[in-house]
Amino acid sequence: MSGLTAPKGTFDVLPPESARFLAVRETLTAPLRRAGYGYVETPVFEHTEVFSRGVGESTDVVTKEMYTFDDRGGRSLTLRPELTAGLVRAFIEHRLHTGPLPVKLWTVGSAFRYERPQAGRYRHFTQVDMEALGVDDPALDAEVVALGVQGFRDLGLTDFELLLTSLGDATDRPPYREKLVEYLEKLDLDEETRRRAEINPLRVLDDKRPEVQAQLDDAPLMVDHLSDATRAHYDAVRQHLTDLGVTWTEAPRLVRGLDYYTKTTFEFVHSGLGAQSAIGGGGRYDGLSAALGGPDVSGIGYAVGVDRTLLAVQAEGLDVAAAAGVRAFVVPLGAEAKRLAVRLVGQLRQAGVPADTVYGDRGLKGAMRAAERSGASHAVVVGERDLADGVGQLKDLRTGEQRAVPVGDLFEALRTAVSA
Ligand code: HAM
Asked: What is the mean pLDDT of residues 373-385?
C-alpha cells in the first residue's frame, strides 16, 4: 500500500525551515501592528458570492481557480482564494464604517487557488493581508504602500521593486474602456480572448502570450486617460511616497489578477524568483464594499505571499531565524537524574529560558548529539556519580569547556551562562 501524500500543489512546512517561515510571517506583520492596524480573523470559506461579486466574474481566479463546493445544507461555499473580499464582507456585516475611520485591519492565513503548480505557485498558500477602509486620502495610499516596503526591508531584502500605477476611477474608466475596446477590436485575437475582452478589456493587456503582446505596443493606457481629479490623487500619492523615502517604478501596463482595483494599484516583484516574481500586491478598491451590498466607502490594502517572500529570503541568502531553537539543554543519565532534569527544564522554561531535554533511553552519546542538534549554547550533564557527589556538569557546547556545579546552583548557573 502506498502512503498518503499532501495533495498536488500543497506542501508541509517542517522544522527547521518552519522557523524561517514563522520569522517571515512575524516580520511582515510587525510594521502593521506598529501602525495601528488591528488583527482580524474571518472564516477560511465564505459564500461563493463574496468572491464572484467581490473579485470579479472575468478573473481567472473566479472562473477557473476557486475551490467551490455545496455543503450538506446545500449552500455554495468557496475556500477563500484571497483575503480581501472576506475582510470587506466582515467590515460590512459588523458595520465598522459607523466607527472611527479609517478602519485599519490585518490578518494572515491560508488562501486556495486551483492553479497549475510550479515554483512559487501553489494551490494552498499563505498571505499576510492588510486593509484600510473608509477614507480616500492619498496619504493613506502612501502609508499602505510604505508599510509593504517596510516589511520587506525589515527582512533584509534588497532585490525587490515596487511597481506602481493608477487604474482610474468609476468616471475615468468607461471612456478609457471604450478606447481600449476600439483598439482591441482591430487586433487578431482568438474567440476566448475576445470574450474575456468583452467582460474586462484591461485583462487583455495582461495576456502573457507573445503573439498577443506583440499587438499591444500602441494600446491606449489608463494613466494617459486619467481625469484631473484622479491624476491629482495619483500625484499626491507619489509626493507622499517620496517624502516617506519610498522609490518605485511606473508600471502603466500593470494589470492585477482581481477586478476590484481603482486608482492607486501596485505590485512588489523580486528579481530572484523566476516566473512567479510577485511577492505582494494591492491597491485601492473604491467600489468593492458597494459591490458586496455594503456602504459606498473606499478601501485600499495589499497582500504579501509568505511562501514567495520566504523564497526571496532564500534567494538573497538571508538568515532570518537566527533566534530560533533552544538555549539550554539538560542531559540526565539514570532515573534519579531524570527527575532533576525534568524539574530543571521546567524551572528554566518558567523563567523564560528556551530549554529542552531528552526523552526515552538515549544513552550518553545519543543524548549529547541531541544537545548539539538543539542549538543550545550550554548543557547540564548529570550522571549517577555526579549525583552522588551532589553536582552536575555545566558544559559550554561551543568550546567543550566543562565544570562541576552544586545541584542547588544548577538553575542559576545555566540561566546565567545562556544569557551571557
Ligand atoms: P494577489 O496579487 O492575487 O492579491 O496576491 C497577493 C500575493 O499572494 C501575490 O503577490 C503572491 O505573492 C501571493 N500568491 C498569489 N497566488 C499565489 C499562489 N498560487 N501561490 C503562492 N503565492 C501566491 C490579492 O490576493 C489581493 N487580495 C491583495 C489585496 C489586498 N488587494 C487589496 N487588498
From this structure: 94
